Ribulose bisphosphate carboxylase small subunit
Amino acid sequence: MYLRQGTFSHLPELSDAEIAAQVRYALLENWPVSIEYTDDPHPRNSYWEMWGLPLFDLDEPDGVLAEINACRATFPRHYIRVNAYDAGYGRQTTALSFLVQRPPTEPGFRLDRTEDRDRLQRYGFRSYATEAPPGERYRD
């Protein structure tokens, strides 16, 4: 399974040069950048662990790339994403979010269907990765 999440989810993996170009764009728009990681990418899991603090007052993407590489080295089997926050008046939302790393294998999700009263069908998603405890979910 290939997780599709974020701004560039249907494009091939971004190279470090392409990541730097997107981070440069976010910095030129005065959007602070943050880095997050998780081993549970469920679609409703919108609160990932934050790597450090948001990176304010940067002019060049080199500092962000250094933090991305440090996060990659610490969590080689996690999903890592970059977020850019637009704090402009009337916006105040995530303006850009994209994955910069995924685990070597992505086990996917299971669709659970249950039947309720009056033949009503209810559906739910469950990640196969969550069958293992946190920190051991993406072992080869």
Notes: Helices lie at 16-28, 62-74. The two ends are 15 Å apart (CA to CA). The beta strands are 33-38, 49-55, 79-86, 93-101, 109-115, 121-127. The mean pLDDT is 85.
